[in-house]
Specification:
- By secondary structure, the chain is mainly α.
- It has one domain.
- Helix content is 80%, strand content 0%.
- The protein is built from 14 helices and no strands.
- The chain has helices at residues 2-29, 39-53, 55-58, 61-79, 85-116, 121-142, 150-179, 183-193, 197-211, 216-229, 231-242, 263-317, 321-324, 329-354.
Length: 357
């Protein structure tokens, strides 16, 4: 219990201290009138400093990861109250072709490049699903299916963490430069080009905070949830393409399985449905009922952003720079190429399919 408490307090401290740090670094240290760093970026950076210099203050890594997942999912579920069910479905259908194109591009690239580089098929498969679908969750779900070694899982997770972290910082600037007038398209780009769910949410929060633009976080989240749902179809396909029939000592336990549809996705949809139902009945609520509902939605929005910011701080707390030194050259190069190609394909597809729509 004390360990969980210290871990949670470390995340909250980073989340609260992050905005001050971002403002101080951007205005005082760099001399800008407006800080180029968002509050979320500040929280992540503060977490990374604490996690790497004073790791004992960050708490246990397993507990920290568990807390990050729970808090992140609570924030995403509450985010559902900001969207009607019709809006969420509309965003999902808009993002679906871009998601499918990016997944296909990643799988084709990894299939060809990994064979040319003589890489381990399980490691290549883990990098493919981690980059194209949903980061660490897809890697952990894929590993027992293809009998991946623990070392291969660790390498793939480190690659996703490294390039996903870079994308989380860089892609909001790219999205704003190209889609400043179309926030939904900016959100679709972030939702398809950034790797892990936590990293997509972080990128969306950074965009929202830095550019004061509504709608990007919601579009990015819905797009990412569509990617998450692709696990049900893509993981069996990748298993056929990359499976290594031999068993090795140190294989990931093959009995572990993940649901095709994560529970928090269903709760997100339920919150969207609740928002739609109450909005539909709003004329019958009366002035007092409408005020109460507005207060509930506003409170849920603030709590959602707090949960998401705390989870981003926890991402920083559990990012260990030393882990990246253990990645070999070939998996690092493959992960970098895949991340770059997915980002480029996402931009091109949005330009061709959505901007002209």
């Amino acid at each position: 219990m004390p360990l969980r408490l210290s871990t949670s307090l470390a995340g909250i401290v980073c989340a609260l201290f992050g905005p001050w740090f971002a403002q101080y670094a951007g205005t005082v240290l760099l001399g800008n009138a407006k800080s180029p760093f968002s509050a979320v970026m500040g929280a992540i950076l503060v977490g990374m400093v604490i996690g790497n210099i004073w790791p004992r203050l960050a708490g246990d890594g397993a507990v920290l990861k568990s807390c990050t997942v729970v808090v992140l999912r609570i924030g995403i579920v509450l985010l559902g109250l900001r969207l009607s069910l019709a809006a969420a479905i509309g965003l999902g259908f808009q993002a679906l072709p871009i998601v499918l194109i990016c997944i296909t591009a990643a799988l084709l690239l990894v299939t060809i490049a990994s064979r040319a580089m003589a890489m381990s098929p399980p490691l290549a498969a883990l990098i493919a699903v981690g980059t194209s679908i949903c980061g660490v969750t897809a890697i952990v779900a894929m590993a027992p299916v293809i009998r991946a070694r623990e070392a291969e899982v660790s390498y793939a997770v480190a690659c996703i963490a490294l390039f996903g972290l870079i994308a989380m910082f860089v892609h909001p600037m790219i999205a704003h430069a190209l889609f400043a007038a179309q926030p939904q398209l900016a959100g679709v780009f972030l939702g398809t080009a950034v790797h892990d769910t936590s990293q997509v949410v972080g990128a969306g929060l950074m965009y929202q905070d830095q550019y004061s633009t509504a709608g990007v976080l919601e579009a990015a989240t819905v797009t990412k949830l569509v990617r998450n749902l692709m696990m049900a179809a893509v993981i069996p396909l990748v298993a056929l393409l990359f499976r290594d029939g031999t068993r090795h000592e140190g294989d990931v336990a093959a009995e572990r399985r993940f649901p095709a549809i994560p529970g928090f996705v269903l709760w997100f949809i339920a919150m969207c449905a609740l928002r739609s139902a109450v909005d539909f009945c709003e004329p019958a609520l009366g002035p007092m009922g409408r005020d109460v509902w507005t207060s509930i939605v506003g409170g849920a929005e603030r709590l959602s952003e707090l949960c998401l910011t705390v989870s981003m701080a926890a991402v920083g707390l559990q990012t260990r720079i030393g882990a990246f030194r253990q990645i070999g050259f070939r998996p690092l190069l493959l992960a970098m190429l895949t991340a770059a190609v997915v980002g480029g394909v996402s931009l091109l597809s949005i330009r061709l399919l959505l901007e002209t729509a």
